[in-house]
Design a protein that fits this description.
Strand order of the largest sheet: 6-7-8-3-9-10
Bound molecules: adenosine-5'-triphosphate
GO molecular function: ATP binding
Keywords: ATP-binding, Nucleotide-binding, Transport
Order of helices and strands: EEEHEEHEHHHEHEHEEHH
Pfam family, one: ABC_tran
InterPro entries: AAA+_ATPase, ABC_AA/LPS_Transport, ABC_transporter-like_ATP-bd, P-loop_NTPase
Number of strands: 10
Largest sheet: 6 strands, mixed
Helix content: 25-40%
Strand content: 15-25%
Distance between the termini: 32 Å
Structural class: alpha/beta
Protein name: ATP-binding cassette domain-containing protein
Shape: globular
Length: 247
C-alpha cells in the first residue's frame, strides 16, 4: 500500500544547530501516529516541514506518492494536510461559525457546483455539521476572541476538519486544557473516522498511548525509534532519552 505521507532525509538547520538531521517518517492511510521526544527534539519543526510552513534544507515530502516538497501551506491544505497549532489559531473578530466557514470554503467545490452561492451553501452545511460535532453549535454566533482557551481549541479542530484533510497534524492539542477538556479531546480523536490519519505531537503519554498505534521518538533532530506503544515502552534507550518516563 502506498503510504499516505512519506518524508525522507528531512534536514533543517538554524545556523550551526541541526533542528532536524535526516529524519524519515512514514504514515499509512488512517494511521494514528505519535511523535514524542524531549523539549527541543525537533517535533514542531517536523510538523512545520510536513505542513509546508518551514522549507527543509534537505529531503523530500511525498503525499500519496506525489512530491509536495516545494508546495506551501495553502497548497498542501488543498491536497489534504490539515494542521492544529500549539496555540489555537482562530480569527478573534469573526464568530465561531464564520471561522469554520472560512476554513470550509476552499474545499467546498465539487464538479458542477462551481457557482459561488452553491459553494457558500456547501461550506455552510459543512461548518454547521462540524460545529454540532464538536459541541459548539450553541455558541456559533459568539466572536472567537471571547472564548476560553479550551473552546478556541475546539474551534480550531473544527477548522482543521473543515478542509476535509486526509492527514491531520496536531501539535500538543491537550496543552492548557482542563481534565474534562482532555477527556473530551481524547474521545473526539478516538472516534475520528479512519478516513483521516493523525500525526500527534504530545508530551502527555497517557493520551499518546490511548490514541496511537505507532510512536516515533525524536531526540536532537534524529529518529531514535519507531514502533508500537509496547515496543517504545520496552525500549531502554528511549526510556533514557525521554526522561518523563515512557513506561
Ligand atoms: N526559528 C528558529 N530559529 C532558531 N532555532 C529554532 C527555530 N525553531 C526551532 N529552533 C530550534 O530547533 C530545535 C527544535 O525545536 P522544536 O520546536 O522543533 O522542538 P520540539 O521538539 O517541538 O520542542 P518542544 O517539545 O519544546 O515544543 C530547538 O533547539 C529550537 O530551539
Amino acid at each position: 500500500m502506498t503510504p499516505l505521507l512519506s518524508a525522507h532525509g528531512i534536514t533543517v538547520r538554524y545556523g550551526s544547530l541541526a533542528a532536524l538531521d535526516g529524519v524519515d517518517l512514514r504514515i499509512m492511510p488512517g494511521q494514528r501516529h505519535a511523535l514524542i521526544g524531549p523539549n527541543g527534539a525537533g517535533k514542531t519543526t517536523l510538523l512545520d516541514v510536513l505542513g509546508g510552513r518551514t522549507r527543509a534544507g534537505g529531503g523530500r515530502v511525498l503525499l500519496a506518492g506525489r512530491d509536495v516538497t516545494r508546495l506551501g501551506p495553502a497548497a498542501r491544505a488543498r491536497r489534504g494536510i490539515g494542521r492544529i497549532h500549539q496555540r489555537p489559531a482562530v480569527w478573534s473578530t469573526l464568530t465561531v461559525r464564520e471561522n469554520v466557514l472560512v476554513a470550509a470554503l476552499p474545499r467546498a467545490v465539487r464538479p458542477g457546483r462551481w457557482h459561488p452561492s452553491a459553494r457558500r451553501r456547501a461550506a455552510a452545511r459543512t461548518a454547521d455539521a462540524l460545529l454540532a460535532r464538536v459541541g459548539l453549535a450553541g455558541i456559533a454566533g459568539v466572536p472567537a476572541g471571547h472564548l476560553a482557551h479550551g473552546q478556541r481549541r475546539q474551534v480550531e479542530i473544527a477548522m482543521g476538519l473543515a478542509g476535509r484533510p486526509r492527514l491531520l497534524l496536531l501539535d500538543e492539542p491537550a496543552a492548557g486544557l482542563s481534565a474534562v477538556e482532555v477527556g473530551w479531546l481524547t474521545e473526539f480523536l478516538r472516534t475520528l473516522p479512519r478516513a483521516v490519519a493523525v500525526l500527534l505531537v504530545e508530551h502527555r503519554l497517557d493520551l499518546v498511548y490511548a490514541l496511537c498505534d505507532t510512536v516515533t521518538v525524536l531526540r536532537d533532530g534524529r529518529t531514535l525509534a519507531t514502533g508500537t506503544p509496547a515496543q517504545i515502552r520496552a525500549s531502554g534507550p528511549v526510556r533514557e532519552a525521554y526522561a518523563e518516563g515512557v513506561a
